[in-house]
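Entry:
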Amino acid sequence: MSEKPTKHTKVLIIGSGPAGYTAAVYAARAMLKPMLVAGMQPGGQLTITTDVENYPGFADVIQGPWLMEQMREQAKAVGTDLVEDHIQSVNLKAKPFEAIGDGGQKYTADSIIISTGAQARWLNIESEEKFKGFGVSACATCDGFFFKDKTVAVVGGGNAAVEEAMFLTKFASKVQLIHRRNELRAEKLLQKKLMENKKIEIIWDSVVEEVIGDEEPKNVKGLKIKNTKTNEMSELKIDGLFIAIGHDPATSLFKDQLEMDNTGYLITKSDSTETNVPGVYAAGDVKDKIFRQAVTAAGMGCMAALEAEKYLASN
């Protein structure tokens, strides 16, 4: 089998959420002919988000997958080379930068924009893995519908957990929020809404030890939970479990090549998307653990493209 010819581009964009697509739109309009490698989940986290009510420009509720489809079409229309591949290794130590796809395709680039995003964190217990997709989920907007008039539990204490719990009350008859501490990290306004919701019960100082369920057909029946203060074990009867304990950035690819913080988020210069390697930029959830919004990711994608354009012009 002969080797595939190397693909070269001035701007290689790795990842295809709001940050990647926006970077592509700006880079293409700057006549840089960018190449965007979509990755394993084209569209990123928005493809598992149904109702989007906070993206500017739309008075009506829009769907996450639709928004990503629109951004993709826009990037394509202005001249982005969209590639279906998944980058599995990069070399940022030499110029031009190099990236290798799953099938061995080699890409070289004069500049790189990293927009690989983040993924949901799991509890990492065996029983959770066993019932993933059979009553255990990390996405209320994807799976909440299946729990109409049922009892569900949400694990977490931040904005995401509170939002998931609130969303689930649209379907479930009862939602139990399990949090390992005795106070939530979520913003005050959200906490107030949560406390006012009659369908939600908060179980403080508790962690999930085991998911209990049937083998055939596979479904969740309950949870074993442990009180973190007394170590007392108890059982909850539930039909579904939603995990909302945060996200991990998709940055393992750049380990030992780019500066990261202790949780793996890429570090960029102040008011910039530039990493510690000149010509390499990071945009969206891969570097942002504070806002994590589609609109801030898109804004950073724009910044990255403009910075890459400036970098290429001066080199």
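The first strand starts at residue 7 and ends at 14.
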